[in-house]
Amino acid sequence: xxxxxxxxxxxxxxxxxxxxxxxxxxxxxxxxxxxxxxxxxxxxxxxxxxxxxxxxxxxxxxxxxxxxxxxxxxxxxxxxxxxxxxxxxxxxxxxxxxxxxxxxxxxxxxxxxxxxxxxxxxxxxxxxxxxxxxxxxxxxxxxxxxxxxxxxxxxxxxxxxxxxxxxxxxxxxxxxxxxxxxxxxxxxxxxxxxxxxxxxxxxxxxxxxxxxxxxxxxxxxxxxxxxxxxxxxxxxxxxxxxxxxxxxxxxxxxxxxxxxxxxxxxxxxxxxxxxxxxxxxxxxxxxxxxxxxxxxxxxxxxxxxxxxxxxxxxxxxxxxxxxxxxxxxxxxxxxxxxxxxxxxxxxxxxxxxxxxxxxxxxxxxxxxxxxxxxxxxxxxxxxxxxxxxxxxxxxxxxxxxxxxxxxxxxxxxxxxxxxxxxxxxxxxxxxxxxxxxxxxxxxxxxxxxxxxxxxxxxxxxxxxxxxxxxxxxxxxxxxxxxxxxxxxxxxxxxxxxxxxxxxxxxxxxxxxxxxxxxxxxxxxxxxxxxxxxxxxxxxxxx
Length: 542
Prior knowledge:
Structural class: alpha+beta
Oligomer: single chain
């Protein structure tokens, strides 16, 4: 809901609240015309129209009735659960892009250094690469409009460069070594977005797959990665769902089906209406029904991630390692409205195979909004003993292990947050874009040498020197970050690791980034030591 100054808000609040209550009919179920409930809805609808009409005709000031209705709907939804939301027509496309698995644009990875848009990389196979846009190009104009030094944000750039497939956009760039600007006319196209961030072999037997969300292409991406690792000799798998906020439930179900056999239950849902009740079971021969499996989760793992985790834990198919998950067990259905806006309404709860609802309480919306911060402040990130579950929410897995509902999924092995892997100074260098800018310039200056290396040589032999860290400090100073040499000295190895990982990303993308960056992944570091316990689950001896 928009923020107002007190006097204006006080004047409009009674109107907004009244419309919000009357507008409840907008999300009602369908009834027969003769039902008492339908009669009540028709009466409320009539009252809503009357009030809106009176305001439009008689209110002392000019009123935007569309805005009033939008605010009324938003206010009404705050009386429901935290995940029922209204999305305006303007915001709907942007909100759906992450889940569609692609967007339409020119296909560049960019960053903004010193108020200048810099092409980090044209995406392989995309329209920008096809016309000759290169890494390091500085975009100074878009369709003739100056965009350098005018305060453009990431969102501004996206709004200018994204657009329907087949439409044209002209960019003007400055390129190192060229005297004058270069102009490119680019025809926008569909650009794939990937939800499997990385898949690689940790050692000769252990494979690793990182899934960042469940989009329209996640299952296909996951299956491709799984088959690739099996060909490389994978016998054991780490599935990393840390920070994965969820997405499409069917892709989570399909993923679980690759691990479970014999029609085992994956998830079921219950709603007010029977049509919202469902049940999903394993239905086909999976690619990895045998073999030790560990799932990594943390407080950012939610929704579809919790479906996967709960199904594998309840069926004793995987060992779950990390920290308690977010606790979102509500299912939303997208309902398109006539003007192109969308209502995402909670229509059911989902339950894990043992019968757990893992939705955390949401009666107090403020507490719900601050739950993750409260967990940190209460010490939950550092000690499993601070987490209390009630016996009334006790359930049993397939092999008789005790698990709990009522607020996220508790891992089988808890891993505390390692504060030694954080640095205030390093965070400031990242948020000011100094690390990204420094590593980008380093790669540009040393590209011939770096490209001559294979990844194994880089991983084993490339060292970030003290001089490189000094240069990073200077880049930070240029971006307004005051040096903190004490923090730098204390966390020197952490700084080196992040710089090396960022350099690798520019040469080998995420496949080069994650094997290095994951040395800061304390949950993964613990997990790879627990495959004996994961094997015990397979043998039903836990």
